[in-house]
Amino acid sequence: MKLPIIALLGAAMFLAGLSNAIADEVVRSVQAQLQKAGFYEGSIDGTWGSQTAAGVRRYQLANDLRVTGELNEVTLNRMGIAPAVPQYKALAALFKGGPYLTAPPDFQVATIRKAKENLKLLGYYNGPINGDPSPALTRALEAYQRSAKFRASGRLDKTTLQALNLLTVSGGAY
User: Fold this and answer.
1) CB 33 within 8 A of CB 79
2) 3-state secondary structure of 98
3) Burial code of 13-51, b = ≥16 C-beta within 10 A, e = fewer?
4) What CATH number has the domain spanning 5-82?
5) Residue 104: what pLDDT?
6) Could you give the CA distance from residue 130 to residue 139 in angstroms, rounded to a whole number?
């Protein structure tokens, strides 16, 4: 069964905003929900494909949602799988107004991890070293920015990235 290109693009655009691990987990959760409700018979492997999209369409139809076959916020909320969407929004908010806003999610996650490491070394952050945006990271960024006499935005803007030695010329890995 061929899937319309629009449905594939919609799902791909949503999933592209998430790191690979998060996207796989979202799809895995969706597949499990769809299978439990009888809308999906494929394997629960975290891979988006035509069977998953068809299951999403059947779920949307049965739940009086706009039938798109795409993972959108309304469908995920109805399924009770909304926590990944705020995570994505938090990731975007952290880079808002900076040069890495449109960088690939994996690069953004790596940048957050390195920012946490650097802020920890400087004594501003004491939480886990991972790629997740968090209130503790925002507070650490604000404290660092205030002490450096930068605008205390709590974001990874160009000035902060440069001061933390995280700004690359090409936007590639450090």
Assistant:
1) yes
2) coil
3) ebbebbbeebbbebbebbbebbeeeebbeeebebebeeb
4) 1.10.101
5) 83
6) 16
The CATH number of domain 88-163, selected from 1.10.101, 1.10.287, 1.10.3470, 1.10.1760: 1.10.101
Residues 75 and 60: beta-carbon distance below 8 Å:
yes
At 126-167, the pLDDT tens digits run: 988 888 888 899 999 999 999 999 999 999 999 999 999 999
Instruction: Categorize the per-residue pLDDT at 3 as very low, low, confident or very high, splitting at 50, 70 and 90.
Output: very low
- What single-letter amino acid sits at 151? R
Q: How far apart are CA 150 and CA 159, in angstroms?
A: 8
